[in-house]
Design goal:
alpha/beta, single chain
Length: about 375
């Protein structure tokens, strides 16, 4: 048999993988959609093997005392993913349950030996949470729940990502892409510093990851005061019925100086206008009033807040209707089978990755008989 030159040289086709996911602590909302999910749906159409992770172990860092909440949320997030159009029936799309991937804890342990502790401590999300405890903006009972698992979860995320590294030696075109929100980019930077430490200390096993941020990296909440967050109660969920969406939009904050319909407004600081920017063209319901015209009408006092909110509610419901329809159909699907099949594929890759890691770290001990 005559081998091709590429096979003789050990080369292969490029391997392009995506790892991304969410901590399942409740239903997903519009902030998740514009910051991540919309991009994920587009990426599944590209030449990537996509792994979408239900990070239930990391959800325990803040909800260890309420496992039933996580259990329910795993189902809800799965339904939301199916609702937005992620399709695990495609050969390149896999839904993965973190706690079912037995290779992840082992990989986390090995990577923790080379993860820079100073970088872990500088993680912005971790610093924000710890600052809240020090300033006593959270209760003592909640502060007492700050565990080692919480402090070290950034390294767990490194393991989540690098479990899916294309095998070494890496080829031109190999890719490990992590679609994330803007606030998650520091996690990718930590991942790559850890990768460089490992490869330098032992041998090249891991490929550095690349981050990709969505078109709307951060969506303000309906109160206009912070990003959309379940804990702040300022969210519009993807599964909210039409009447709930309309009510929430009607209660949204606007320009505090625009008290009457004829008053001139400042659309640049108005959360309602921000939502029109994020979702108007997406919903194909801008109608005769495009964004520029809407902003000008607001500044001239020709567009009242009530009318602007009504138009936004219609636009959002126009966007959410097909998502709600797909979610209702997903309720009848065999969800556990979808999760088991996706997790099984991730474990196949995990076994290969761990074999390379153990070999690089001299943990096989072939000299011992």
């Amino acid at each position: 048999m005559i081998l091709s030159k590429s096979l003789m040289n050990g080369s292969r086709k490029p391997i392009r993988r995506i790892l991304t996911g969410v901590r399942p602590t409740g239903k997903l909302h519009l902030g998740h959609y514009v910051g991540a999910l919309k991009m994920w749906v587009d990426l599944q159409e590209e030449d990537y093997d996509c792994f979408f992770l239900l990070a239930d172990v990391q959800a325990l860092t803040t909800h260890a005392e309420n496992p039933s909440l996580i259990e329910a949320a795993v189902r809800e997030v799965t339904l939301d993913w199916l609702g937005v159009g992620l399709d695990p029936h495609r050969s390149n799309v896999h839904f993965v349950v973190q706690s079912w991937v037995r290779e992840l804890p082992e990989l986390y342990t090995y990577l923790s030996m080379v993860a820079p502790f100073s970088d872990v401590r500088r993680n912005p999300t971790l610093k924000e949470e710890m600052a809240a405890i020090e300033k006593k903006t959270v209760s003592l009972s909640e502060a007492s729940k700050t565990t080692l698992g919480f402090i070290d979860y950034p390294v767990s995320q490194v393991a989540d990502i690098e479990l899916f590294t294309p095998p070494a030696p890496h080829q031109k075109g190999d890719a490990l892409l992590v679609p994330v929100g803007e606030d998650q980019v520091p996690h990718i930077e930590l991942t790559n510093r850890t990768v460089r430490n490992f490869n330098r200390t032992y041998n090249e096993v891991f490929l550095e990851a690349s981050a990709r941020v969505g078109e709307v990296p951060r969506l303000v909440g309906t109160d206009g005061q912070a990003k959309m967050s379940k804990s702040l109660g300022n969210v519009i969920q993807l599964a909210d019925p039409e009447e709930v969406v309309t009510k929430k939009v009607g209660q949204m904050f606007t320009d505090p100086r625009k008290l009457r319909q004829g008053d001139p407004g400042r659309p640049d600081i108005c959360p309602v206008y921000t939502y029109h920017q994020a979702f108007g063209s997406e919903s194909n319901l801008l109608g005769s009033r495009d964004l520029q015209a809407r902003a000008e009408a607001c500044r001239q006092g020709e567009l009242g807040c009530v009318e602007c909110k009504k138009e936004l509610a219609v636009a959002l419901n126009n966007l959410l209707d097909p998502i709600r329809d797909r979610r209702a159909k997903a309720e009848k699907m065999a969800l556990r089978k979808i999760l088991e099949e996706g997790t099984a594929r991730s474990r196949e890759i995990g076994v290969q990755t761990l074999s390379a890691v153990r070999q690089a770290m001299h943990l096989g001990y072939p000299q011992i008989h």
